[in-house]
Amino acid sequence: MRIVGVTIPDEKRVDIALSYIYGIGRKNVIAVLEKAEIATDKRAKTLTEEEIKRLTKVLEAYKIEGDLKAEIAANIRRLRDIGSYRGMRHAHGLPVRGQRTRSNARTKRGKRVTIGAIKKEVMAKMEQAQKAKATGK
Predict the structure, then answer these.
(1) Which CATH number describes the domain made up of 68-137?
(2) Taking the CB of residue 76, how many other CB atoms lie within 10 A of it?
(3) Whole-model pTM?
């Protein structure tokens, strides 16, 4: 079943299935279902056409999916343009909300890269390889 352009899983309860829509979370689902007058314990596949229409009508009042993503992107772009601290953190791909980066933030910063910690033996082998390469040419 598709609601507002999103495929909703049929086997899940309606309150869980609606949270698959970007911008509708577990808190909003309760309010949406109350306005649409749909029981939360129903399965998504058991919804009638009438209930689906009521649901889509209620969801029109919310900013969801593409509209919400565009608004968030515009907010981030505005922060970058005015040169705020948060905008700079977004631009550099670092945590924005004050998290420490010395030991964590791997999801934002990526895989670890060791800088400057090379053992003497490895350095000597690298130098020999470079000399051999230079004389070989």
Answers:
(1) 4.10.910.10
(2) 15
(3) 0.67
